[in-house]
Amino acid sequence: MAWHETTVAPDLSTIPPLIEWVEARCQEGGLSGELTFKLMLAIEEAATNVVSYAFAEMPPPHRIQIRIDIDDDRCIAEVVDNGRPFDPSVAAPPDLTGPLEGRDPGGLGIHLIRNMADRIEYRREDGQNRLRIETDRH
Fold it and tell me: For the chain, what is the HEC assignment?
């Protein structure tokens, strides 16, 4: 597999250029508009969560890498960071049943990632979080 890879600074200002990069890779790979949107949204949420939460009380240097591979059958994105361990694949789903005013904030980003992907997988390896986001090209 030929991975496309980029590294971004752990700052919210780097998210819009990252999403432009993701969109360009999706277009190069011939993904449909719907799959491109899903992948862009999932990566945006994952990267925003890393920037917002992963590095609290963690000494620098802080690193975030995004890898994308698009083949004939699927698209795989991997968000890799050296922040605190956190497995979004086991986070409890948010309560979407109650009135908005009574709900706990947070958890919607992970919920969006789960709904945009066909599969997500997390592993902690060599002091890094690795979130794999996979969508099928149906």
Answer: CCCEEEEECCCHHHHHHHHHHHHHHHHHCCCCHHHHHHHHHHHHHHHHHHHHHHCCCCCCCCCEEEEEEECCCEEEEEEEECCCCCCHHHCCCCCCCCCHHHCCCCCHHHHHHHHHCCEEEEEEECCEEEEEEEEECC
